[in-house]
Amino acid sequence: LAAQTMKQPLEMSSEVYDCIVIGAGIQGSCTAYQLAKNKQKTLLLEQFVLPHSRGSSHGQTRVIRKTYEEDFYVQMMHESYELWAQLEREAGVELYRRTGLLVMGPENGEGFSRLKATMQRHKIPTVFLEKQEFSQHIPNVNLADGNGALIDTFAGVLYADRALRAVQRLFQSCGGVIKDGEKVIDIRPGAEVTVTTDSGVYRGRSLVITAGPWANTLLRHTGLQLPLKVVKINVCYWKEEIPGTYSVGQSFPCFIEMEPKEGEYDIYGLPSNEYPGLMKVCYHMGSETEPDERDKQTDRGDIDILVRFVTRCLPGLVPVPAVVESCMYTVTPDHNFVLDSHPTYGNIIIGAGFSGHGFKFGPIIGKLLSQLAMGQVPSHDLSPFRIQRFQSHARSSL
Ligand SMILES: Cc1cc2nc3c(=O)[nH]c(=O)nc-3n(C[C@H](O)[C@H](O)[C@H](O)COP(=O)(O)OP(=O)(O)OC[C@H]3O[C@@H](n4cnc5c(N)ncnc54)[C@H](O)[C@@H]3O)c2cc1C
Ligand SMILES: O=C(O)[C@@H]1CCCC=N1
Q1: Distant-in-sequence, close-in-space partners of 31: CB < 8 Å, separation ≥ 6
Q2: Regions of the chain with pLDDT less than 70
Q3: What is the β-pairing status of strands 193-197 and 201-209?
Q4: What percentage of the chain has pLDDT greater than the value 70?
Q5: Which residues have CB under 6 Å of ligand 1?
Q6: Is the CB of 63 under 6 A from ligand 2?
Q7: What confidence tens digit (pLDDT) does each residue in 116-160 have?
Q8: Each residue of 357-395: pLDDT tens digit?
Q9: Which of the four CATH numbers 3.40.50.1970, 3.30.565.10, 3.40.50.450, 3.50.50.60 does domain 10-57+161-228+334-389 have?
Q10: Angle between helices 71-91 and 160-173 (to 10 degrees)
Q11: Which family does the record assign (predicted)?
């Protein structure tokens, strides 16, 4: 009996991969696909059985836009749109639906002014709406006093779950290997990195860590901790008083209300689509949580803010959420991503801290992280995303 219950040592696979990617969310899946396309023998490890709803990439929809204040995000989005279109062709599925994005914000505020200037500088097709013509273009929305409004006409919706499945399928069709339901429990850095899961041991010449909310749990094995905050997002859907009022079919756009009140985070919404008669409207922040204890976080302060916003600005919605789902953001202090090599181990690449706005960048992030993993010079300037910027925060736990 003792012999039967004794644990067998985990077997080391004889295969040496060019690259092992940990985490099959949108960033890891896109990275793995880019590597496989570049003839790299690639293993993608995922702790949960796919598909799952325990990280940050699940759910049916995400916003895609070029509407950013910073030039570097706009430049990356130019290429990301092209790569999404390429993915649609390769997978033979529709992943993007153009709806436009309405941005409302304090007309003379710093953020809104910077956004307007960036849109103009990059010649992004934008309609600037005057207060008096607003309701004619956007019925059933109340523009707050003092707010300006613009529309990014090429923005829209990405079909997130469908996109994730498509990228993983493409990765496998290029010879990539996915092992899901395998949690990584140890990482040994070296010229060949050794990665141990709860059921096997694997070796790779390089390693990409794209573990979303679990980034720091894994980085601990490499002696690094980043200043990341994991928050639970209450994903709220609101019932239309008259079904279809805010629907994709009625050409209702996605929207962002910048800084609805001083000190508050943005509120954003997507036209009703995935659940007929329900519109998704969310607060762009949540309360801190441990990633494995997400459902124990029951704070509803964000929902109170949303109820006030819906009552004031979206009169065609019942101001009580009809459905609340859960998701997580992994937030950096400056809300910019981490895209970098490990400061000590050059063959360990980190993609983390996507701060609630990373999905739309998936294909370009996949390309950049794969370039780092292959030892190539990245095709965009990655200086805004370096670990070094956290010098006073990032801790070595070696
Ligand atoms: C409610 C919500 C709305 C959003 N809206 C938008 C939007 O409109 N537009 C936009 O661009 N972005 C949006 N985002 C952000 C975007 O979805 C995220 O930035 C993106 O999904 C992050 O992907 P990821 O691959 O880094 O993380 P994840 O999707 O969390 O993937 C990480 C994966 O790593 C796995 N993993 C972790 N640890 C281990 C381990 N030890 N072993 C094996 N596997 C492991 C996890 O299980 C997980 O599957 C939104 C996010 C949320 C939550
Ligand atoms: O990234 C996005 O576009 C969305 C909407 C604004 C806030 C966060 N996610």
Answers
A1: 21, 208, 210, 351, 365, 366, 369, 370, 373
A2: 1-7, 393-398
A3: antiparallel
A4: 97
A5: 22-28, 45-48, 55-57, 62-63, 183-184, 210-214, 218, 233, 235, 282, 327-329, 354, 356-360
A6: yes
A7: 999 999 999 999 999 999 999 999 999 999 999 999 999 999 999
A8: 999 999 999 999 999 999 999 999 999 999 999 987 655
A9: 3.50.50.60
A10: 70
A11: Belongs to the MSOX/MTOX family.
Tokens 């956290």 appear where? 390
- pLDDT score for 262: 86
* In the chain, where the domains are located: 10-57+161-228+334-389, 101-153+229-329
Annotated catalytic residue 300: no
From the CA of 359, give the closest atom in ligand 1: 11
Q: In ligand 1, which atom is closest to the CA atom of 52?
A: 49
Nearest ligand to the CA of 257 is 2
Sort strands 278-283 and 338-341 into parallel, antiparallel or unpaired: unpaired
Active site residue 261: no
101-153+229-329: CATH homologous superfamily?
A: D-Amino Acid Oxidase, subunit A, domain 2 (3.30.9.10)
Give the pLDDT of residue 7: 66
